[in-house]
Amino acid sequence: MVDTLVIGAGPAGLMAAEELARAGRQVVVIEAKPSVSRKFLMAGKSGLNLTKDQPFEVLLARYGEASGPLRDILKAFDAEAVQDWARGLGQEVFTGSSGQVFPKAMKTSPLLRAWLVRLTEMGVEFRTRWRWIGWGEGFEFETPEGVQTLAPKACVLALGGASWARLGSDGAWAKLLAAKGVELTPFKPANMGFCVDWSPYMTKHFGAPVKGITLTTNDAPIRGEFVISKRGVEGSGIYAVSKAMRDGADLTIDLMPDWSVERVQGRLARPRGKVTVMNHMRKALKLDAAKLALLQEFARPLPADAGELAKVIKALPVKHSGPRPIDEAISTAGGVAFAALTEGLELKAVPTVFCAGEMLDWEAPTGGYLITASLATGRWAGRAAAKS
């Protein structure tokens, strides 16, 4: 027997462990990998975006269909609370021009180290290289010492989604919960790139950024940028529209969002003499090589009429062959349906077992929303489990 278990040592699991320990429970955190929070550490490689500093209703709306079940959870631990939590761990934060909040150190490691020290001082025990493999007389784990069984009074599952399996989120837990009759929503990739079958002409542009553009799906334009990669298109701008694209919406790109179509047409209508159409566009519109290459790739043969060509430049259709594989996605949609959970995130089919983090059926764009909801649901589930 153990008192309480937390399975999964990402942000949601660590937050649940902290709340349980704060309530006086003896907590054992189980992690399949040799070390904790590998995906959390990866998230900080290019700057750890903790949350988005914006009014609560605006923040909540970014969770789409899950806004209803997440409302009270996020209200109890909103963007301001995330910042206070980081400061409480000795990590000062700052807000960028877009409202994104980062620790001044920019990396995950200082914050994580401080957090693990605090949890250890609170009596939380960590067991790594323990993989949950099923149910028996309790929770069964494959460990370096063989199969072990633990029978806690309460357990919080914080096992992540189904992307980045090498960091620990492989979605293998879904079969275990399904066997208990837990309602699950199928996994889908979220915040991912899209495959493009490029022509050989595009090879020299692999790795080139495409900046200063507007991406439009379902008549909803978003200012952003992306990268032309060997495999297709990826980057923050693509991630921002990836949900709509995944669900069937067409993508068009405005290569000159600060110019009207009439202004573009006027420039293109100027005499070009013996200059090629591509060179004419480069000189008249100052389009860079990457944008010109995309025009050639997606709109060839280019219209001869200045007016029609201007329309293409302002709404270039992107042809793709679907999203990148789910394991390459930053996050996933799908998981444990909210209908399978009580208000306290306890599984209706398996009493005293709670769920938190990305294994729940919600999705959100990048920009701090993923970490915020993972922390908030971990806190909520931990507090509820502490009463079991």
Description:
The structure is a single chain. The protein is an alpha+beta fold and 388 residues long. It folds into two domains: 245 residues, 3-Layer(bba) Sandwich (FAD/NAD(P)-binding domain), CATH 3.50.50.60; 124 residues, no CATH class. It has 13 helices and 19 strands. A six-stranded antiparallel sheet has the order 12-15-14-13-16-17. Strands 6-2-1-10-19 form a five-stranded parallel sheet, covered by helices on one side. Strand 4 and strand 5 form a beta hairpin. Helix 4 packs across helix 13.
CATH top level assignment of the largest domain: Alpha Beta
How would you state the average pLDDT, rounded? 96
First-residue to last-residue Cα separation: 15 Å
Class derived from helix and strand content: alpha+beta
Shape: elongated
> How is the main sheet built?
6 strands, antiparallel
The fraction of residues in strands falls at: 15-25%
Q: What fold name stands as the CATH topology of the largest domain?
A: FAD/NAD(P)-binding domain
Radius of gyration: 24 Å
Instruction: Find the count of extended strands (DSSP E, 2+ residues).
Output: 19
CATH superfamily of the largest domain: FAD/NAD(P)-binding domain
Question: Architecture of the largest domain, CATH level 2?
Answer: 3-Layer(bba) Sandwich
Unreliable stretches covering 5 or more consecutive residues: none
Read across the widest sheet, the strand sequence of neighbours is 12-15-14-13-16-17
The figure for the number of domains is 2
Separate helix tally = 13
Helix fraction by DSSP (H/I, runs of at least 4)? 25-40%
